[in-house]
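User: Structure please.
Assistant: Input sequence and predicted structure:
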Amino acid sequence: MSFFKIKACYIIVLLTGRAFLVNAQTAPSYTTAQAHSHNDYEQKIPFYSAYYQNFGSIEADVILRNDTLFVAHQQSDMQPDHTLSSLYLNPLSSVISTNKDKVFPGSDQGIQLLIDLKTSAAQTMPALVSELKKFEAMLAPKGPVKVVLSGNTPAPADFGKYPDFIFYDGRPDVKYSAAQLKRVGLISQSFPMYTKWNGKGILIEKDKKSIQDVIAQVHGQGKKIRFWATPDEINAWKMLMNLGIDYINTDHVEQLGTYLRARSKAEFTATETHKPYEPTYRNNDARSEVKNVILLIGDGMGLAQIYSGVTANHGQLNLTKMLNIGFSKTNASDSYITDSAAGATAMATGNKTRNRAIGVDSNLVAVPNLPGKLHLMGIKSGLISAGSMTDATPAAFYAHQPYRDLEDNIARDFLQSPVNIMIGGGTAHFEKGRIADSLKMKGVAFSNNWADLEKIKAPFVLLDDAKTVSMQKGRGDFLVSAFKKAHQSLAANKSGSFIMAEGAQIDYGGHANVVSYVVTEMLDFDKLVGEAMRLADADGKTLVIVTADHETGGLTLLDGDFKKGYVDGHFSTTDHTAVMVPVFAYGPHSLDFRGVYENTAIYSKILDIFKKYQKK
């Protein structure tokens, strides 16, 4: 809410909002009930723009002329049909009638209408009281609308002369008697009185303390506080919430409404963390023999997703212990922004392709997958995903289809693949068309029961959709357990092994724009990274590569707290973005992955390293 001068007069229809506590960094739980539409009458649709955003406060400036209360900032702006009743009181009465005495359907939330009386209290109060009496049934203390006058209000000594459905907007430096304080519905002050902060960066400590002191003072009186002339953009809104200001002022009604409605999806505080593995860096910078390659793909994992995990895990991840880092350019052959199919195909085949294409080039012609190439060298492969094995990323390592949607055909392609181990979800596509039976006839064990993991012998396919739910729905240690099984099953192969394991649901969380989903998946994926680093140190001949196919969600981090494991993020899209993604490498030949290169280079680098040490 914005207030111009102490002498200006406002009427505030005050929404009933819940109380909250202020914590450092972690803002209290804000909803649109704490949003204020500044100069609401300047919105394209006065009242209703804010109302349909479920705002808790709406502001209208009022000028008295010839016994009529017009809504306008100054007399030259007045329009005949823009009166207090036509723009605000009648619409309020109508929605309350429709909603059975509630402002918002099925909600006990009230509403605050701020009216800046541009004419003097002596002139305006009689007409205002007369007008409000027509709507007394909906006004507090009887109804859900609390009217608070501000600006050119009567003197505090005269508060009691007016009906009890009128409250007043106080000031923090005014001392009120107990009786007067009962009629104070809100306390306001100019934000620039305490700081020149423009919304960028953070408040200096001196200014922050001054603001916190006045907020504490007002809250100590049992009142809510608002400031006018506050900065009005996302980073500023977040800072104002951290301070514990009761109403967030905005001219950007739809943007603030969208932001506040997403708060439950934007914040996450970790309740469980993991201790990163302490690497020995065995052969880490050496260009020595590589027998095994582990490629870990965090689907949708960009730098913000990684740093959200760093923050939630109190400042460190296994990933942050890797020393050799590069960047991969992810564009598809037909688009600046890739999807998982084209992104994974680039890494699995060394070919750029069109979005939605699997294991084919840009002409949709099948090209060899990396496991097929490695099979010719005697190297065995395993594929793991925390999602469906017929989805784009794992499919690119064994299938050849023009469209990722052809999941039944993708599953059938596995019959021609030399991949030795597959663990993930997507059971239905393998059971349809008797593909599972065909695998068994080829000597490949098939199970749709996670309980069979320990006893099943390679070559095998284990698909259990119940174990590829999100971490928040109880997936547990699926990725690490599946990876250990695959590694143990392939370790005896003298020519070496290749394992691709995908943290599929980092991407799902990005598409859903849910920070908690992203972070919990990121933390689980990092446990897999730590296990791979441990295995690399154990033999000194294993190269670990960690990357992403693309970034999802356009995630930015607006706030965080390492000590609390608290993350506050904001998404710019529900789709993928074009930003480069990091490539982390650990073990021998990890130096080869430094620099900036096309995602197709990951394929060629892996293949070249294996060829270098192929036994003659």
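Confidence is low (pLDDT under 50) at residues 1-24.
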